[in-house]
Amino acid sequence: MSSQHQHDGDGPGVSASVQRGSVWVMELRGELDVAFIGRVERATAEVLRRFPGPLVYDLRHLGFADSLLLNHLLATRRQRPVGLVGVNPFVARMLSVTGTAEALPTFPSPEAAEAALVPRQSRRGTSAPYAQGCRCLDGRHRQN
Question: How far is CA 98 from the centre of its chain?
């Protein structure tokens, strides 16, 4: 699968979406609230349809996020491994207070996220479906 870029302008939402190695990185920008979560949900749904590997959300340019983003990340996590990069103190506190920090691990870079989320034998752009075991929050996973 080749890398693809999607840009959503300079406004809030998804500013870039691209495959990097064996993960898909979605860069979120601005203040993410009820007015803009739909953009993120649509972009994520498209990636889930086209890319079988883990998703990494780059939050370095995210000024604000509320529980809508947290719920979206947890819903995505039920389908794929999810990692976060560039978590600001507000988001880190939200993860800590809600007890979701373990389910949504943070990393210093997309490369570090890939190293942790993708088994070594599956790296380097493979398109094998996520089948290395259930990582669902509720302990169940669906077979395709």
Answer: 18
Distance separating alpha carbons of residues 126 and 117, to the nearest angstrom: 13
CA separation for the pair 2, 111 (Å, rounded): 18
Cα separations (Å) of 124 from 13, 40, 117? 28, 26, 13
Bridge-based pairing state of the strands 106-107 and 13-20: unpaired
CA-to-CA distance for 59 and 70, rounded, in angstroms? 12
Task: Tell me the C-alpha distance between 90 and 76, whole Å.
Answer: 21
Q: How far, in Å, CA of 90 to CA of 43, rounded?
A: 23
Task: Give all strands of the β-sheet with 82-85 in edge-to-edge order.
Answer: 13-20, 23-32, 55-65, 82-85, 106-107
pLDDT tens digits along 51-98: 999 999 999 999 888 899 999 999 999 999 999 999 999 899 999 999
Angle in degrees, CA 90, 74, 11, rounded to 5: 55
Total-model pTM: 0.77
Q: Residue 111: enclosing H or E segment and its boundaries?
A: helix 110-117
Among 19, 3, 22, 52, smallest CA distance to 117 is for 22
